[in-house]
Amino acid sequence: MKRVQHAAAVTFLVYATITLLALIPTTPAVGALGVTVDVDPDGALLLERLRGAVDGLRAVAWTLAPVLVVGALLAPLLSMTWLAALARPRSVSDALREGASRYARAVLVSVVLFVPLLAVGALLAALPALAHLLFDATVDARAHDLALLGATLPGLMLLVAWSAWHDLSRAALATGGGGVLGAVRTGFRALGVKTVGVYLGLFAFAAVLGLAGHATGAALTGSGSLRGAAVLLLLQAFAAGRVWTRALWLGAALDRVAPRDSGTARLVPVPDPSPPEALEGPLPPELSAP
To answer: How many domains, in total, are found in the chain?
Structure first.
């Protein structure tokens, strides 16, 4: 928590940047996701819903593409600036300089980790495809959908582990722990069941905040400037909560990759204050046996 407190200014900068980038594609994207789809009530509902959402997003791809490109270019800078501020107390300008100096290495970490991401993506595509072949949607559409969902779980868990590995590797860069490959190895060594559990728990909490924000906005939508301002403030409060939850995880990632002492005590010989000759000869009378 102390890390998050002394990085409050940079965390707010990250929140403001994300908010500004999200303002551009929000309206067309929401409209695309709300496209009405003709659904066969006896068909495979999951596939048809997904197909309808993809068709809707394709219509706004030209609006989303520039924002996604800008966001992808800014992401390493924001990430390393944020980690620099979380690593130790510093000014925003100092954190930005630190983040900019590690921008190229942060990109290279993503490039190196893109290889295992391809393997995870292949698994995410292969297992549902296998389930689709094994379960005939024309016989039991619900069983088909459940099989598809179940087949995605192993790949999703690996994707969660990969995301935690990616953050841990960049956190290792922020602690100054060697080059790109060294940071990737440090991140992998820090990866474990407990670490993935912390990542998953905070990710789930952030997702709940996001869903709560959307549900609140849908429930309170109405006319009136005061009502609209209240809804906007609530939505931004939920969005800020997600950003602070992310800051908590990055602080935990820094704790897991921070260099530690080995913990072994080094024995230091203590010189005997008595000179060697004092130990020679007969014992003093008071120490002699009667």
So the answer is: 1
State the amino acid at position 76 in one-letter form.
Answer: P
* 131 found inside a domain: yes
Query: Is the residue at 202 inside a domain?
Result: yes
User: Do 62 and 100 touch, CB atoms closer than 8 A?
Assistant: no
Domain that residue 168 falls in: 2-258
- What pTM value is reported for the model? 0.73
Give the model confidence (pLDDT) of 101-130 as tens digits.
Answer: 999 999 999 999 999 999 999 999 899 888
Q: Report how far residue 182's alpha carbon sits from residue 258's, in angstroms, rounded to the nearest whole number.
A: 13
The residue assigned the tokens 């559409």 is: 141
Question: Residue 200 burial (CB < 10 Å; 0-12/13-18/19+)?
Answer: middle
Distance CA 130, CA 150 (A): 11
Asked if the structure places residue 283 within a domain, the reply is no
Q: Kindly state whether residue 117 falls inside one of the protein's structural domains.
A: yes
